[in-house]
Amino acid sequence: MTKPSFGGSAAGALAPVAGQVVKAKEHALAGTLSIDLDAANAILKQLATLRLRAADLVRDCADLDTPLKFGDNWVGEIMSRRLREVAVGRRGAVTPVLTTFHQVLDDLEATVRFAAGVYETTDEQAEADLRRAIGRFGVQLEEGP
């Protein structure tokens, strides 16, 4: 399992945390880390909120990948190119950092699930969420094979 890498100033703050998440996940997978189920559920609830927000930010980053209009001159073109590079260009840019941060949150969620012994897959979760949602309308899904 590789430690995520962050570039630029994000490396100082996020890289050590990402490394600790990787180590914790390794311990959870090895069975040497455990979390109380109630605590795990509270953590998973908070992580779900964070993951949704991070996913929204990553999705919204697509808007950053557009040329800016600072005028039809060499200064405007240089400023536009530089700001776009900071937003989406290199490893330390906003978009790659947010994408990697979202992946770290995914790893952290998996770590908590393993440590708590909660092994529901995403498909099982989606099915349960769908059943709850349509149950409000008095509709029931047929059981699968």
Terminal Cα separation, in Å? 35 Å
By helix and strand content, what is the structural category? mainly alpha
The geometry reads as flat
Uncertain stretches of 5 or more adjacent residues: none
- Helix percent band: 55-70%
- Provide the succession of SSEs: HHHHH
Mean pLDDT level: 78
**Proportion of residues in β-strands:** under 5%
Q: How many strands in all?
A: 0
The number of distinct helices, counting runs of at least 4 residues, comes to 5
Tell me the radius of gyration.
Answer: 20 Å
Structure description:
This protein has 145 residues and is mainly α. It is 68% helix and 0% strand. It has 5 helices and no strands. The mean pLDDT is 78.
What is this entry, summarized?
With 145 residues, the chain is mainly α. The chain is built from 5 helices and no strands.
SSE inventory with pairings:
Blueprint: H1 10-30, H2 37-60, H3 74-89, H4 94-116, H5 122-135
List keywords for this structure.
single chain, mainly alpha, 68% helix, flat
